[in-house]
Design a protein that fits this description.
Distance between the termini of chain A: 38 Å
Strand content of chain A: 15-25%
Strand order of the largest sheet of chain A: 6-7-8-3-9-10
Oligomer: heterodimer
Helix content of chain B: over 70%
Shape of chain A: globular
Distance between the termini of chain B: 25 Å
Number of domains of chain B: 2
Helix content of chain A: 25-40%
Order of helices and strands of chain B: HHHHHHHHHHHHHHHHHHHHHHHHHHHHH
Order of helices and strands of chain A: EHHEEHEEHEHHHEHEHEEHHHHEHEEH
Structural class of chain B: mainly alpha
Largest sheet of chain A: 6 strands, mixed
Number of strands of chain A: 13
Number of helices of chain B: 29
Number of strands of chain B: 0
Largest sheet of chain B: none
CATH superfamily of the largest domain in chain B: MetI-like
Strand content of chain B: under 5%
Radius of gyration of chain A: 23 Å
CATH topology of the largest domain in chain B: MetI-like fold
CATH class of the largest domain in chain B: Mainly Alpha
Largest interface: A-B, 38 and 24 residues
């Protein structure tokens, strides 16, 4: 974890209004979101510092209007930030010329959009090949590559269809395939499954996890659905009024909410589904008998917790016992859920 | 806090309406003084001496630009290029002796290609319509004049398209250009077409070239507007997807924006084609040969049968072009399975080429397939003439038209006209300002007063008032018929669709055609003028009434039903108030159409601005032509600004969105 973060942003502000730069310079320290609004400006992103390391999946969560989409558009410089710095692989993206920025997007970044953002006049194949076409690859290689990704997302046989002929889930597969065509290092997904109905959403999440298992990209994923966040995230950042309230692993957010807002946000969550044996393990006690895996959630261990008679159950990670879990702690969590 | 703002806005509203009433009161006082004979003459009409010689000033400016700045040289240079293009199409379509000396293309070939194109765009029906139009034109013996018209159209429409889309893109990229273009476009759209014609003649020689130029300029504004609109409507995410795919600016425009705005741009193309057709027909007034010229000549000599036949040709052409371009708007690219052979992907193109060549060969051997001779056509001019005259002589028809002529004209229209002419100029200005203040707001009122004062200063006040009188009376009568028709039709889905189809079709007719039934029924009278405006203006009124009423959300009518409203209560309390903003748009369009038509009606014989405008076409009175045109434009703009402001205010207040 000592390697350089892929995305690193420091004190990033994005203010909307007539003269945001000038306003931000004269604005008193510690102005709240409402105070800024009263001045006729909107703080889309408010003093955010965050890092994403290689291969990590960061999920940004928040209600609509909390600034999560704005933040991710700052990462890819679809929005120009008002102040602060954003570095991608150690390079300050605000200092890039238009040409360099286009190069960066052509080679390193992929993005998936909530309402897909497909070009209506192009077939599936042409949509997927679009980024390759833009960077000037010849027809033959881009076709070959596009077919490869189309196969990867399971749309084989639909290459010649137009977006309007596809279902929502299929359209988003096209969106995903397009964002993967250039083999990006960094993958932005802006509420990719929100526009889909629940059954399809579940299916697409599984599909997404499968792809991520294959590809291992650095991912920034936006959602307003906590269940989705819990299923996918390595870390979760919770945003409110443009600011990040807390950024931590899912179980830490559930167990130790940093602010009142986060606590309320996570209140309804079934903690047993989030908290793992590792979190409950106490290093001083070891317990006896058969050990449980550190990654297992309390929910997954429910049967064992109820039927076992041991006071302390040993927890193992990579074959080493890292501590013991009090059975009553687990049971308490399980019962709390209802 | 919300409450406070609402109260203050109420207060503003109150004073606004109060002020409007005060203006009306002052106007009334002026009128009473006038009738009592106490008003000084100078307050009744602006004295001659005070009228600035705008026409002369404008002429000086024009002459300076034309000769000293060398604009004439430039335009004459441009004329060369345009003339070459027009000669080429003229040769191909009706065999004018110019390069490439290949034509004329046999009519059968054109009809066959039109049929294939129609089938490709919209299936069998469109194929039959397209082929039918051209077959009719050939058989009725109007092929040559129709092709004269088409030869200008096929050049003017693409040129207008290219200029329009380019300006549209530029205006979308540069907000300052957009801001600068908007007012110019709205003036251009209200400017009477005679004002397009004279400069075209002066700068581009009489004949097809001038006709083409006037047509092009006339057709550009909607293309600009539709392009800008379409580009603005491209979804944000599609644009962002383009950015993230690494598009450069140029790539973004060509591969993302323009294809995504395809529909709006094609709607623009449809409008360009229709306006071009309407204008090409009207260029007859500056001596452009073709359908329009023939129609003008036939109507002038009261040959109603032939006029009717030409009218049908024009209408058929209009409907075909409209349906085809509209089918193109909704046509989506079809996908072919992998491995479809080349010829199968392009089967329609190959078919069209084959049909074309086939008929070219056939016409080498069979004369009729190439051109329908003078004696061979099926024109029934004489017989139709007699038929129409017979119809008009039927006792019922005769007495109806006579009643309308005698009673409506003498008892209503003429007194109304005299009344309008009797109002003192300042009173009219005050009344118009009050109207604008009441409906629009302070800004609209100031503009209205300014615009009408300019009309007064132009020195054409009485003629302007006659124009205004024709517009007001025609639109009022149109409302009396159009609104009930729309309300009744909107009751059932089926009738709504039928009437809307009629309106849609009627709207594609070039305005000139509307003169034919008017002259047929009422001859050369004032009532014919009103009648032609009336049917033209009724179309948007009926159409928007239906659309407005049909767009009222179902929950609201259902809520009214559940509240126990009778049909009448529902109509008056729920449907009409909600449909009113949309209906206002229709009303506005009706007024704009009326201002347009009233000028064309000058052909029948009026005493208004149109008549004077038409007279200027014979000479080189560019200054006078412009002054007259601007008068029409200013009056139309006053209504346009006020009514559209009211409609958008109402829409916002009702939460119906922009």
């Amino acid at each position: 974890m000592t390697q350089q973060p892929v995305i690193s942003c420091k004190n990033v502000w994005k203010v909307f209004g007539s003269k945001p730069e000038a306003y931000l310079k004269t604005m008193p320290e510690g102005h709240s979101y409402d105070e800024i609004s009263a001045d006729g400006y909107i703080a889309g992103v408010k003093d955010v510092s965050i890092e994403v390391s290689r291969g990590e999946m960061l999920v940004i969560m928040g209600l609509s209007g909390s600034g999560k989409s704005t933040l991710v558009r700052c990462f890819s410089r679809l929005h120009e930030i008002t102040s602060g710095t954003i570095e991608i692989d150690g390079q300050d993206i605000m200092s890039l010329s238009e040409k360099e920025l286009i190069e960066l997007r052509r080679n390193k970044m992929g993005m998936v959009f909530q309402s897909f953002g497909l070009l209506p006049h192009r077939t599936v194949l042409e949509n997927v090949a679009f980024p390759l076409e833009m960077r000037g690859q010849d027809k033959h290689t881009r076709r070959a590559r596009a077919l490869e990704v189309i196969k990867l997302v399971g749309l084989e046989g639909r290459e010649e269809y137009f977006p309007r002929e596809l279902s929502g889930g299929q359209q988003q597969r096209v969106g995903i395939a397009r964002s993967l065509a250039i083999e990006p290092d960094i993958w932005f997904l802006d509420e990719p499954f929100s526009a889909l109905d629940p059954l399809i959403r579940r299916e697409m999440q599984d599909e997404f996890l499968r792809l991520q298992g294959l590809l291992g990209k650095t991912i920034v994923f936006i959602t307003h659905d906590f269940d989705e966040a819990l299923r996918l995230a390595d870390r979760i950042a919770i945003m409110k009024d443009g600011a990040v309230e807390q950024c931590d692993t899912p179980d830490q957010i559930v167990l130790h909410p940093a602010t009142e807002y986060v606590r309320k946000f996570t209140e309804e969550i079934d903690k047993a589904r989030v908290i793992t044996a590792k979190t409950l393990a106490i290093a001083e006690t070891k317990g006896t008998g058969e050990a449980v895996s550190a990654d297992a959630t309390v929910k997954q261990l429910a049967k064992l917790l109820v039927h076992d008679t041991r006071e302390v159950i040993p927890v193992t990670e990579d074959g080493i016992i890292i501590g013991g879990m009090n059975r009553t702690d687990g049971l308490t969590l399980l019962l709390e859920a209802d | 806090m919300l409450d406070v703002t609402k109260k203050t806005s109420d207060k503003i509203e109150l004073t606004r309406h109060k002020m409007a009433l005060i203006l009306v009161a002052v106007a009334a006082v002026l009128m009473v003084l006038r009738y009592a004979g106490l008003l000084p003459e100078a307050l009744f009409r602006l004295p001659e001496a005070m009228i600035p010689p705008f026409a002369i000033w404008l002429d000086t400016i024009f002459n300076f630009v034309k000769d000293d700045l060398g604009l004439l040289k430039l335009t004459r240079f441009l004329t060369g290029g345009l003339e070459a293009l027009l000669d080429t199409t003229a040769n191909l379509l009706f065999g004018k002796r110019r390069w490439p000396n290949l034509g004329p293309i046999p009519w059968t070939s054109i009809a066959a290609v039109a049929a294939v194109l129609g089938y490709y765009l919209g299936g069998w029906r469109l194929a039959v319509l397209a082929a039918g139009t051209f077959v009719w034109t050939a058989l009725i013996g109007q092929w040559k004049i129709a092709m004269e018209t088409m030869s200008v159209l096929v050049i003017a429409a693409p040129v207008a398209f290219v200029i329009g889309i380019t300006l549209g893109i530029l205006a979308w990229r540069n907000p300052w250009l957009d801001r600068a273009l908007k007012p110019i476009l709205s003036v251009l759209q209200t400017l009477p077409f005679f004002t397009y014609l004279l400069p075209a003649v002066i700068f581009f020689k009489v004949g097809p070239t001038a006709g083409a130029v006037a047509t092009i300029i006339y057709a550009i504004p909607p293309m600009i507007l539709m392009t800008t609109l379409g580009l603005q409507k491209v979804p944000e995410e599609v644009v962002e997807a383009g950015h993230m795919s690494g598009c450069s600016r140029w790539q973004l425009l060509c591969y993302v924006y323009i294809p995504s705005a395809r529909q709006e741009i094609l709607v623009g193309v449809n409008q360009v084609i229709m306006l071009c057709l309407a204008m090409v027909v009207l260029t007859a007034f500056i001596g452009m040969p073709g359908l329009g010229a023939k129609l003008l000549a036939m109507m002038g000599s009261f040959k109603l049968g032939r006029s009717f036949e030409i009218g049908v040709t024009i209408v058929l052409l209009a409907v075909t072009l409209d349906r085809m371009s509209k089918a193109w708007v909704v046509k989506q690219p079809a996908h072919f399975e992998k491995g479809t052979p080349w010829w199968k992907r392009h089967v329609m193109l190959l078919l069209a080429i084959a049909a074309f060549i086939f008929f070219v060969i056939v016409s080498q051997f069979i004369e009729v397939a190439s051109t329908v001779g003078r004696k061979q056509n099926f024109s029934q001019g004489k017989e139709l003439d007699n038929l129409i005259k017979g119809f008009l002589n039927i006792e019922v028809v005769k007495s109806t038209t006579y009643f309308l002529r005698a009673f409506v004209n003498v008892q209503i229209l003429i007194p109304f006209r005299n009344f309008i002419l009797s109002i003192p100029t300042p009173a009219v200005i005050l009344l118009v300002a009050a109207f604008a203040l009441w409906l629009g707001g302070r800004k609209q009122a100031v503009l209205a007063a300014m615009f009408f004062s300019l009309v007064a200063l132009s020195g054409w006040w009485d003629r302007s008032m006659i124009t205004l009188y024709s517009v007001i009376s025609a639109v009022s009568i149109a409302m009396l018929i159009g609104l009930p028709l729309g309300i009744v039709a909107s009751r059932t889905e089926r009738w709504s669709r039928r009437i809307l189809l009629v309106c849609d079709t009627a709207q594609t007719f070039p305005s000139f055609v509307y003169l034919i039934p008017a002259i047929m029924l009422f001859g050369i009278t004032d009532i014919a003028v009103i009648f032609s405006i009336l049917i033209f203006a009724m179309v948007p009124l009926t159409r928007y009434t239906i659309e407005g009423l049909r767009a009222v959300p179902h929950e609201m009518t259902e809520a009214a039903d559940m509240a126990g409203a009778t049909r009448m209560q529902k109509l008056w309390k729920v449907q009409l108030p909600l449909a009113l903003p949309t209906m206002a748009v229709g009303f506005n369009q009706a007024i704009m159409f009326a201002f347009f038509m009233v000028i064309i009606a000058a052909f029948i014989g009026t005493q208004d601005l149109g008549q004077e405008l038409q007279r200027t076409l014979a000479g080189t009175d560019l200054g006078k032509n412009f002054v007259l045109g601007i008068c029409v434009s200013l009056m139309a703009l006053t209504f346009d600004l006020t009514i559209m402001k009211w409609a958008s205010d109402q829409k916002r207040a009702l939460g119906l969105g922009e």
